[in-house]
Amino acid sequence: MSQHDIEEVCSDVFLALWDNIGKTDASRLKAYLGSIARNKAKNKLREMGAEVHIDDCIILTSDDDLESEFLNRELADLVRQFILSMEQPDREIFLRHYYYCQSVSAIADDMQIKVSTIKTRLRRGREKLRLKLIQGGKDYGIENLKPNGLYI
Hints:
- The protein is mainly alpha-helical.
- It folds into two domains: 1-52, no CATH class; 54-152, Winged helix-like DNA-binding domain superfamily/Winged helix DNA-binding domain (Arc Repressor Mutant, subunit A, Orthogonal Bundle), CATH 1.10.10.10.
- Helix content is 63%, strand content 0%.
- It is built from six helices and no strands.
- α4 packs across α6.
- The longest helix has 21 residues, at 115-135.
């Protein structure tokens, strides 16, 4: 990134923090700010067409609680294994939509597949991931993982 792009990302990070300061717990401010910065930087790189690898995106921001850190690491490994075990074109659709933030219509155009088919494959993939996490038997906070939306 150029210096101008870096400054823009920093500004976006602090603006997002300012806009959401009421939603933040003061004891977890460091982790919250780190996650905002990571996501804003990834989004800027995607806008620029830079390639970001999935392993680079899994960053643990909480150094206060070892159990939480371990669960986060284990959850990240399970999600990575799940995505890598998916068959084509489901894996490509899942990565394009959730990792590269491409719209359903853009994916459908590029892959020459109906929009409804893309939506169905995404929904089925989310459900399979949710069930896999539930089968793990540990509390990964999957109460936030809903069948109609992916919140990881």
